[in-house]
Specification:
By secondary structure, this protein is an all-alpha fold. It is built from three helices and no strands. The radius of gyration is 23 Å and the shape is elongated.
Length: 111
C-alpha cells in the first residue's frame, strides 16, 4: 500500500511538472482563488460607490443640502477605505517573492 501511494505521489508530481512545462502560464488553485477574491472585492466596491453616487444625485435633485453633505462625507470615507485597501494590497505584492505564493515548493496548489 505504501509503494502504491509513493508511486501515485510520484506520478502526480510528474503530471504537475508536465502541466507546468506545457502551460507556462498555468496557475495553482490558491492563485486563482486570490484573483477571484480580488474581482469580487472590485465588484462590491463598484456597487457601493454607485449607490452613494445615486443617493447624492437624488439629494441634489430634491435640494436636500444636509443629505448631500452626509453623502459626500460617506463618499470621502469610502474613497479613503479603498485607497487604504489598495495600499495594503501593494504592500503585500511588494512582500511577495514572486514565486506564486503557496506553489513555492515547485508544485501547484491543489484543492
Amino acid at each position: 500500500c505504501v509503494l502504491a501511494s509513493s508511486a501515485s505521489s510520484s506520478s502526480s508530481d510528474d503530471v504537475d511538472r508536465d502541466i507546468s512545462e506545457a502551460l507556462p502560464q498555468w496557475r495553482g488553485a490558491s492563485a486563482l482563488r486570490d484573483a477571484s477574491d480580488r474581482v469580487v472585492r472590485t465588484i462590491e466596491r463598484g456597487f457601493e460607490a454607485n449607490q452613494l453616487q445615486a443617493a447624492l444625485k437624488i439629494a441634489r435633485e430634491k435640494g436636500d443640502t444636509g443629505a448631500e453633505e452626509r453623502i459626500r462625507a460617506a463618499l470621502a470615507e469610502f474613497d479613503d477605505k479603498v485607497r487604504g485597501e489598495e495600499e495594503d494590497r501593494r504592500r503585500g505584492e511588494d512582500d511577495d517573492d514572486g514565486d506564486g505564493g503557496s506553489e513555492s515548493d515547485g508544485g501547484p496548489c491543489t484543492i
